[in-house]
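Researcher: Next sequence.
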Amino acid sequence: HLPYSAGLFMLCVAWVLTTSMALYAIRTRRIEQHREWMLRSYTVTFAFVTYRLASTWLNRWIHVPEDPVADDLDTLLAWACWAIPLLFAEPLIQLRSMRRLARSTTKSR
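Model: Next structure:
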């Protein structure tokens, strides 16, 4: 069960890192960076809900006859529940940042 445990451990690391960076940003009065890190933190925090929903859906719609296959699905979910949402959230965060920068550049001209 090492891959499963590693997935959950990395979820913990991602949560502590994103939340710590958000806390550091707000303490140093970097409001926009704080917002970006909080979006990442919320995304990682929501991973617990994502795991539960995906697990329930998979168990309801996919019949898994063997225990090793069920363990493989749990391992996949332990990684996917936080990595995939972050993969989608990060481009949105960066796009928002790029638009904000473009607006500020346009206003200064």
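Model: The longest helix spans residues 67-108. The mean pLDDT is 89.
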